[in-house]
Task: structure prediction
Amino acid sequence: MAEQFDNRPIGVFDSGLGGLTVVEAMARRLPAEDIIYLGDTARVPYGDKSVDSIKRFSHQDVDFLLQRGVKMIVVACNTVSSVALPALKRQFPAAHLLGVIDAGVQAAVASGARRIVVIGTRATINSDAYRRGIHAVDPSLLVESIPCPLLVPLAEEGLGDSPLAEAVLELYLGGVRANPPDALLLGCTHYPLFKAALDRYFAGRVNIVDSATACAEYVAEYLTANALAAMPGKKSQSRFFVTDMHSAFPAHAARFLKRTPERVEKVSLEFPE
Result:
């Protein structure tokens, strides 16, 4: 029996640019897959919005991608994954929806760490989704969660490896530096831009679990298990959609994507009250 392939694109969305770290990791891990990315840059960040607003915005994001014929959707937004993913799965039962939090939990547990510190936006940390996910797998693991809201704007401004970033890391993580955890789980897709700074901050003593890379591996496993993988060797294409685009967008996006994005289009979603 001939092997089946599915060359439809994978949809990825985030409230802004952070999800481009997931796209970059997926492009490395899955070079044959087409990707359509949606960044809701007009309403970024989702992390300081109400739960009702996050659910409404993410519903629009999923609907937008499904209209473009994607075969699955990666929720590359920790905030949406933590507070809205179950609702999205109920609203779109036929869609293949994967959240970045499940991928991060799987990678953190697989790391063998006994003590894990999770950092993320306030909404993600307040949801307690990572701790609950980790303890659902292994309740004996020690998990501490720390909100680090200033890291997102620093990443957006390209200051992920700067003296200012080091000062902010001290503000948030100074209390755990003297007694570092086994693993630090980056619970925000912006945070891979701080990997070098974090490695220096902890003097290489902490295993930094990058949720973007973990998500790419998680997607690869899901594609194989569900016969959704594209034909190997196929030339891939990427399209990028945003709901607001300023003149510096290409430079900002390149920091996350590690290349200048092609075919960026500004679109309008319905913003019901």
Q: What stands out?
A: Residues 244 and 250 are 12 Å apart (CA to CA). The longest helix spans residues 51-66.
